[in-house]
Amino acid sequence: MARRVVLLHGIWMVGATLRWFGARLRASGHAPETFGYHSIVGGPQAAVPQLVRRLRDGPPADIVAHSLGGLIALQALSEAPELAAARVVCLGVPLCGSAAAQRLARRPVTALYLGRSGTLLRQGCVAWPAQHSVGMVAGCLPRGLGAFVARFDGDHDGTVAVAETRAPQLADHVVVAASHSGLLFSAEAVRQADAFLRDGRFHHRADAGAAVRSAAEPRSR
């Protein structure tokens, strides 16, 4: 029987943005369902209890979450530790806090773009109940407006730095050649998510480091 997988989108997005990713997970033998929420006007205050109710309603579920959605998922699991153990795949989630969000929050006008999710994006989430195994798929293609806001020093996906996606409690971490939004349409990100949901670890290749470095290099003009 296919395992239930709840999908969460990031800020400024809607459930439909997960349609492509969910279809590929279904083709791989999973049973995905989308959890939509209002990332700006509702934020985690509304989304977290709604997600807890969704996870309680029905059989045990794993989670695949993009960006802000990953922070909301981990907060929900932390606030409801009685939930059945789940594997969580994070896609470009700023566990250590988002530098882009921190810069946007410095001015009232730009802080409005983050709405009620601003605090969670700035703070991140680096700890969660031990029964939940969490893996991170980070992107390294520097394409996105966040780069102009945060001024990243190291590898990033255009919105979130790879360093912001690392936390000691992660079960595994992998970097793929995708931008922040591109993670939702990356065949490699789907392949890695499927691997973690099944095995609790990603499929690391010996040549992956060279491929990632090549993808992260700026293109010559």
SSE-based structural type:
alpha/beta
What do we call the CATH topology? Rossmann fold
Element-level helix/strand string: EHEHEHEHHHEHEHH
Count the DSSP helices: 9
- The coarse silhouette is globular
State which percent range the strand residues make up. Answer: 5-15%
Tally of structural domains: 1
What is the CA–CA distance across the termini? 51 Å
Described by strand count, sense and barrel closure, the largest sheet is:
6 strands, parallel
Describe this structure in words.
- The chain has 221 residues and is α/β, with parallel strands linked by helices.
- It has a single domain (4-216), classed as 3-Layer(aba) Sandwich (Rossmann fold), CATH 3.40.50.
- Helices cover 35% and strands 15% of the residues.
- The chain contains nine helices and six strands, in the order βαβαβαβαααβαβαα.
- A six-stranded parallel sheet has the order 2-1-3-4-5-6, sandwiched between helices.
- The longest helix has 14 residues, at 43-56.
